Each structure stands twice: as structure tokens, then as C-alpha cells.
Amino acid sequence: MKALLEELKVKIIETLNLEDVTPDDIKEDQPLVGGELGIDSIDVLELVMMIDKDYSVRIDNKDVGAKVFSTLKTLAGYVSENSRQTAS
Is 87 among the domain residues? Predict the structure, then answer.
């Protein structure tokens, strides 16, 4: 799970073009949306597409999305539980 958390930090930074943000700046229990990172609903849509493309995990329900994107830890847990990829 730690590797997935670190991977997601990098992908979030790259996907959203977060300048001046490093993976260490993203805390596992810090709110993703509306938190210090400034992630908004448009950013969430980009992250949903990245999660679908990179992990084959769909988030197609607003209520599920609200829970999944509450923190990095909840996002990683959801991806881990729902990923169709096999561990390499």
C-alpha cells in the first residue's frame, strides 16, 4: 500500500500540474479536495480519468467520488480494492 500511496502522489502532481508541490507535501490523511493543495471539482474530474486510465478503476458516482477523494489514504484504498491490474 505504501508504494501505491507514493505512486498516487506523483500521479496527482503530474496530472494536475501542481507546481511547487512535492510528493512529501501530500499527506495521507490530509483532505484532497478543498485542502492545502487547492484541488477543486475540475481537478477531481481529471483525477477520475487518470485513475480509470492507469488503474482501470471507475469512479462513476458522485457520492462514491466524494468518499474516495476525501484523503490520499481513502483514494489508495479504493484503487487497491478495485484495481483489475495484477501486482507486478
Answer: no
